[in-house]
Specification:
137 residues; mainly alpha; Arc Repressor Mutant, subunit A; 2 domains; three-stranded antiparallel β-sheet; 6 helices; elongated
């Protein structure tokens, strides 16, 4: 019996193509290579071998775990979509905005079309963040 590798502490870096594959896993849950190829057939012109290569890379990086089920392998995301998005967001902010959230948000709010609903949601999130900061530990 081989020992399972420990789950990495933080999600690995994921390429744009790998994100596309991971979105299918997050939507479907544990899946076979065939399941993922079928899901991506309408959204990409990738050949099954390309999808297989991307899945192998994601397993090597620790983003997917693999389990043999009969004659088939089932792949499962190791990290939630929210964990990967948060890690990628932190990385982007660090690289592009020196870790500062305000310049990023200011640029988006000033230069993008934001609906009234989105503004209300942003306001709610900021109010909740402020509330958490004013509560004693």
């Amino acid at each position: 019996m081989s020992a399972k590798p420990n789950k990495p502490v933080t999600p690995p870096g994921i390429s744009d193509a790998e994100w596309k594959v991971m979105h299918v896993f997050w939507e479907r849950g544990p899946s076979s290579l065939r399941d993922i190829v079928e899901s991506l057939e309408n959204d990409s012109d990738w050949k099954p071998r390309t999808v297989q290569t991307l899945i192998r890379r994601l397993v090597t990086k620790g983003a997917l775990s693999v389990e043999e089920k009969g004659r088939e392998f089932r792949y499962t995301p190791v990290f939630s979509q929210a964990d990967c998005q948060h890690d990628e967001s932190r990385s982007f902010l660090g690289r592009v905005f020196e870790g500062r959230l305000v310049p990023f948000l200011a640029g988006m709010v000033e230069n993008e079309a934001i609906s009234k609903t989105e503004i209300e949601e942003l306001r709610r999130l900021l109010d909740a963040a402020e509330e958490r900061k004013t509560q004693p530990d």
